[in-house]
Each structure stands twice: as C-alpha cells, then as structure tokens.
Amino acid sequence: QVQLVESGGGLVQPGGSLRLSCEASGTIGSIMSMAWYRRAPGKQREWIATIINGFTNYKDSSIEGRFTISRDNGRMVYLQMNSLNPEDAATYYCNANVDGRYYWGQGTQVTVSS
Question: Residue 75: pLDDT above 90?
Fold first, then answer.
C-alpha cells in the first residue's frame, strides 16, 4: 500500500508564497510520475502540474509563471507557489503513479486572504 501525505498549506496574503510538500511512503518500487491538483470550493478538481523524469508540465502559462513543481531523488514532490491570489485558494492534492497505479493524498488547504 502507498500513502501520500501533503503539508505546507495555510493562510497567506495576496502576493505571498507557499511551498507545498508531499511525501510518498509504503511499498514503492518506482514512482513513474508525481503531480499536483487542486479543488476550489464549488468547483471540480483541476490539474496543476506534473513532473516525470525531471520534465515538468503545467496547466497554463499563468500557473507556469508562478508555480514550480520539483522532486527530490526519493519520494518527495514540492510545489513552490508565488504571487498567490484569491483564485488560488483551494485544497491542493498530491497524485503519484507508483508502479503503474495512481494514488492520492488527503489534501492540504491553501487560503489566500488579506
């Protein structure tokens, strides 16, 4: 079994920054990809960014210009978020493809408010 645990969420003022982390644990052979999604209140979950073998892909230019997805050499994935605005407020979820199966974390809440 594989578990994903996110951390780093919280309250930030508009224009501020946060760094989200996600750690995979359990029986892991190979992590094929890791990604971040988010769900804002009243909206569907949306994909934000993916990292595969060091290559990154982002939802759109607005995200790519402010967010950075990265990984360590092990089981961690990060999402550096800069220039946050109220539209970025959401629950952020980590997703990983481990040995061909997809897993989700429980999410970490990001609130952007003055």
Answer: yes
Of the pLDDT bands very low, low, confident and very high (cuts 50, 70, 90), residue 30 is very high
pLDDT, tens digit, 9 for 90 and up, residues 81-96 = 999 999 999 999 999 9
Q: Determine the longest span between alpha carbons in the chain, in angstroms.
A: 43
Residue 73 scores a pLDDT above 90: no
Q: Which long-range contacts (CB under 8 A, 24 or more apart) does 41-44 make?
A: 41/89, 41/90, 43/90
Tokens representing 79 are: 């999402």
Question: How many CB atoms neighbour CB 60 within 10 A?
Answer: 8
Is the pLDDT confidence value at 110 over 90? yes
Q: Tokens for 19? A: 């760094």
State the distance between the two ends of the chain, measured CA to CA, in whole angstroms.
Answer: 40
- Closest by Cα among 65, 64, 47, 44 to 56: 64
In this structure, what are the phi and psi dihedrals at residue 108, rounded to the nearest 5 degrees? -135, 135
Q: Does residue 89 contact residue 14 with C-beta atoms inside 8 Å? A: no
